[in-house]
Design goal:
Elements lengths: L17 H6 L6 H9 L15 H14 L4 H15 L6
Length: 92
């Protein structure tokens, strides 16, 4: 495959494993594919695809943080502050 691969749904470059996206996800980012074919709810809320929906995962993680006595909004606020301050990401 030569050149940049563009997602057929959003038109942006596919930078993470473009060959997989072309073959498995019909030329889309995995998230674009999910919203196009699998997401059976409002795009801003979790759907029933518990294995692939990012909102479901985020919702679960927020619930788990609360269960552990941690405020999820405070965690997100800390991550935003860190990103603004020094450009770091949660994994870096």
């Amino acid at each position: 495959m030569s050149g940049a691969t563009k997602c057929i749904r959003c038109g942006r470059s596919i930078d993470v494993d473009p060959a997989l996206s072309v073959d498995l996800f019909e030329g889309m980012h995995w998230l674009c594919f999910h919203f196009e074919f699998e997401h059976d709810a409002d795009p801003d809320v979790a759907c029933n695809d518990i294995a692939g929906c990012p909102w479901w995962t985020i919702s679960y993680l927020k619930d788990k943080l609360r269960e552990l006595g941690v405020d999820p909004e405070a965690v997100i606020g800390e991550a935003i502050s860190r990103k603004v301050r020094d450009g770091s990401t949660p994994s870096g």
